[in-house]
UniProtKB/TrEMBL annotation:
Native species: Rarispira pelagica
Protein name per Swiss-Prot or TrEMBL: Signal recognition particle protein
Residues annotated for GTP binding in this entry: 108-115, 190-194, 248-251
Lineage: Bacteria, Pseudomonadati, Spirochaetota, Spirochaetia, Winmispirales
NCBIfam families recorded: ffh
Location(s), subcellular: Cytoplasm
EC number in record: 3.6.5.4
Length: 441
């Protein structure tokens, strides 16, 4: 699913992700590409405009320019925007407790997947320990009652039908009476659709809703119809109070236009998605997961979030100054370890980077050695960390004992640290020399 839109977003990501600096012009170019991707995905034009304006506004702010990796930061903003337009948080059904009958009404066009979704929802609620009953009130489509009956039998859920009656309001009334009598706790009503929005359909659904007083009115929309799914939902919303959306045929949706338009156009959140023809192919809708699928990336966003927590540009500059002046101490070194630890297991961190999966073997990252070094530094006093030259033989013995290591290991750390300090100093000097040479040219 989402192959097309995902490919387009990947191109944008490739363009910006490696950039060490980002200008307003880069941002505008990337956002223009996003705009085209969204239009191509059949997202509603109003939604596209909002998306683009909000992204530009946030990306041009301080946050991106000041961050250590502006490209990644920009991607994070786009990801957050996608989540927002998909509906922010996962939204659950608002049902009454199991002692009282709750009513869920399904509405939508013919062929959108209403009947199938009614059975899928019943199946899900049954698995969650509820006692659902289906009410077959689609009296327009000839095979609808038979279809629901077959599905109900397959999932072992009760069903109310009345083939003699052609008044859906009466059928619903009798069905709900039956539901209360049988001590069911959720009644799911399948209603009639039409090929397009018309007054007769709207009048019928309004009358049914008035009778049923539903706790939830779920609009069933076919994801493959793109932004027109959002337009139809809006037309329904003008007549009945839609509380959520079931987006069907998500498995065949390569573009994502419906998913990205519906919440903004209707204010009703997507609560479930249909991901296949079987009754099990039904899932709650998680905006964050869908956003990552659209961006087609590993868990790069949590990676950026983690990196952000532990580094910022000012701190990096402070560190560079220390290195240059050779005042970088074991205490600073220790701080770096702790940052690495805060970012979690190094191996899993590497795995989160797209394209890096499997690239680094676990044995290449010597966590054990790092931990040992950390223990050694932690056993030193602050004075020792800031000036290792005072560490004579007796102090070394004490440190080795305190850290559960040997004097040999303490010596090795001190030697390596001194080597590293000199090398870092040289590297920073060279970098500055190069920069000043360049600026003289
Ligand atoms: P209704 O007229 O709204 O009741 O629509 P149906 O429930 O009869 O569904 C119309 C067609 O869409 C049927 O062939 C279903 O099998 C199919 N369908 C429904 N939901 C999904 C879904 O999530 N994925 C796929 N691939 N097909 C679906």
């Amino acid at each position: 699913m989402f192959e097309n839109i995902s490919r387009r977003f990947q191109d944008v990501i490739k363009t910006v992700s490696g950039k060490a600096t980002i200008s307003d012009k880069n941002i505008e170019e990337a956002v223009e590409q996003i705009k085209l991707a969204l239009l191509d995905a059949d997202v509603n034009l109003r939604v596209v405009r909002r998306f683009v304006n909000q992204t530009i506004e946030e990306a041009k702010g301080e946050k991106v320019l000041r961050s250590v990796s502006p490209g990644q930061q920009f991607i994070k903003i786009v990801n957050d925007k996608l989540i927002h337009f998909l509906g922010d948080e996962k939204q659950d059904l608002q049902l009454k407790g199991p002692d009282t009958l709750s009513v869920v009404l399904l509405a939508g066009l013919q062929g959108s997947g209403k009947t199938t979704s009614a059975a899928k929802l019943a199946n899900l609620l049954k698995k969650q320990g509820r006692k659902p009953i289906l009410i077959a009130a689609d009296l327009v489509r000839p095979a609808a009652i038979d279809q629901l009956e077959t599905l109900a039998a397959a999932i072992g859920v009760a069903i109310y039908t009345d083939r003699e009656n052609n008044n859906p309001v009466k059928v619903v009334k009798a069905g709900l009476k039956e539901a209360k009598k049988g001590l069911y706790d959720v009644a799911i009503i399948d209603t009639a659709g039409r090929h397009q929005v018309d007054d007769a359909l709207m009048g019928e659904i309004e009358a049914v809703a008035k009778e049923a007083k539903p706790d939830e009115v779920l609009f069933v929309a076919d994801a493959m119809t793109g932004q027109s799914a959002a337009d139809v939902a809006k037309a329904f919303k003008e007549r009945i109070d839609i509380t959520g959306v079931i987006l069907t045929k998500f498995d065949s949706d390569t573009r994502g236009g419906a998913a990205l338009s519906i919440k903004t156009i209707t204010k009703a959140p997507i609560k479930f998605i249909g991901v296949g023809e079987k009754t099990e192919d039904f899932e709650p809708f998680y905006p964050d997961r869908i956003a990552s699928r659209i961006l087609g990336m590993g868990d790069v966003v949590s990676l950026v979030e983690k990196a952000q927590e532990v580094t910022d540009k000012e701190e990096a500059e402070k560190l560079e100054k220390k290195i240059r002046k050779a005042t970088f101490t074991l205490e600073d070194y220790l701080e770096q370890f702790q940052k690495i630890k805060k970012m979690g297991n190094l191996q899993s961190l590497v795995e989160m980077i797209p394209g890096m999966q499997g690239a680094v073997a676990p044995q290449d990252i010597d966590i054990k050695a790092l931990k040992k070094e950390e223990a050694i530094i932690l056993s030193m006093t602050l004075a020792e960390r800031n000036n290792p030259r005072i560490i004579g033989p007796s102090r070394k013995k004490r440190i080795a004992k305190g850290s559960g290591t040997s004097v040999y290991e303490v010596n090795r750390l001190l030697k390596n640290f001194e080597k590293m300090r000199l090398m870092m100093k040289k590297m920073v000097k060279n970098k500055n020399a190069q920069q000043s040479m360049m600026s003289q040219w």
